[in-house]
Structures are given as structure tokens and as C-alpha cells.
Design a protein that fits this description.
There is one protein chain. With 131 residues, the chain is an alpha+beta fold. It has helices at residues 84-89, 104-124; strands at residues 2-4, 13-18, 24-30, 38-45, 53-58, 63-68, 72-79, 94-98. An eight-stranded antiparallel β-sheet has the order 1-2-3-4-5-6-7-8, covered by helices on one side. It is globular. It starts with a strand and ends in a 7-residue tail after the last helix. Pfam families: LOR (PF04525).
Length: 131
């Protein structure tokens, strides 16, 4: 189980903790101001001194990449354009493609954080949670 809370800083940052402990695993921080759908976030592992994983793309449309050290794609998130499930439930579906030798639990945690950040931004603008 992961726990996150927002840190106070010039840009929004979200530390992610292991379970309910105070052991910080990584921090997600926005690199830009939130005036556009296309943003860049940075993930800094607790053990690293510099951000290691930029996360870039269109978060509203769930079309973004988690990049390892600026050069290789660790994971891609993309909205599925049509599925029977989305037609029945009225909810959008998206898929996550994780590159070989990348920790799937880490990617799942990052995707969960990006969804939480996206939902928080929608709430601030007076909209419902994402589907």
C-alpha cells in the first residue's frame, strides 16, 4: 500500500511512502505551471540526488510516457479508443505498456499518482473525478 501527501514547495510535489510508514520511496513533482494539458512531471527516487524519471505527455487524455534518464521509455500510457467495457460502463479505459526489466509495481504506483493528481486538478476546477 502506498501513501502520498503533498509537500510545500514552489512547484507541486507529492512524496510517496511505503505503506503507512515514514519511509519515502519517491517524489512526483510538476516541472511546469499547470496552465496546459501537456505537462512534464519528474520522479525522484529517494536514493537519487536528481530526478531520474521524467513523465511527459497529455495527462487529460491519458497519453503519456514514463522515461528513464531522458533516453529510454520505461512505460507508455495510452487511452484505448474503443472497448465494449467502456461502451457499457461509460468509463474510459487506458492501457499501460511496461518495457522489459522495468519494475511493474513502480510503474503502477506512478500511474496511480498521475491519476490522483489529474483528479485533484479536476476537483480544483469543479469537475467530477475522471472515469
Amino acid at each position: 500500500m502506498l501513501f502520498c501527501a503533498q509537500k510545500i514547495s514552489l512547484h507541486n510535489t507529492y512524496p510517496v511512502y511505503k505503506g503507512e510508514s515514514s519511509e519515502e520511496l519517491f517524489t512526483v513533482g510538476d516541472k511546469n505551471t499547470r496552465d496546459a494539458a501537456e505537462l512534464t512531471y519528474e520522479i525522484q527516487l529517494e536514493s537519487e540526488s536528481e530526478p531520474t524519471f521524467p513523465v511527459k505527455g497529455d495527462f487529460v487524455r491519458r497519453n503519456y510516457e514514463i522515461i528513464f534518464k531522458v533516453s529510454s521509455i520505461a512505460a507508455e500510457v495510452a487511452m484505448k479508443h474503443f472497448s465494449l467495457t467502456s461502451m457499457i460502463t461509460g468509463r474510459s479505459n487506458y492501457g499501460v505498456l511496461v518495457s522489459p526489466n522495468v519494475d511493474q509495481a513502480f510503474v503502477a504506483a506512478v500511474v496511480t499518482m498521475m491519476e490522483a493528481i489529474h483528479n485533484e486538478n479536476k476537483e480544483k476546477r469543479g469537475r467530477k473525478h475522471s472515469d
